[in-house]
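User: For my dataset I need records formatted as: sequence, then structure tokens, nothing else. Please produce one.
Assistant:
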Amino acid sequence: MKLWDKIRKTGTSEEAYRPEQATFAVRPDTVYAPVSGVLVSVEEINDEVVSSKLLGEGYGILPVGDAIYAPADGRVVMTTVTNHAIGLLTTTGAEVIIHIGLGTVAMNGKGFTSYVNQGDEVRAGTPLIGFDSAAIKDAGFEDVVTVVVSNAPQVGHIEYAAVSNTLIGDRPLVKIGDPLLVIR
């Protein structure tokens, strides 16, 4: 190997960016905000399947940030090839689906990075997916993050717990780790 090739090779060995673990107090019966942003009701999401609660009970979050974190302790049970959605089975049996954007499957993974694999055990606050809101919007899609418990009737009653004293346009602002849903 020539000297120039060695120099060039050492200059290109970059590790992919991975966000730090988020830390927050957790309870096993609670699903926490996986991203910071402005909270919207699931009925307001501009998707008929989501807004009619066919996917489950939950919220939408207009994100501020570029990473999705585990909203509870559990196991990754579903990933997508395009990295725009993920499913977790919490330690209490709740199936949580997190979907980034509307129509973003058509982006074929562009603007999304997965930090975990199906079968991985995760703790609340573990980085799951990175995403580029600007790329989503440039592609003509909404970047709303949907967080739902898909098996709510089987695990118990869902209480909507997200409250905030900080409002943007009469809507609560949540941060990573704020309680969203409590399963009773």
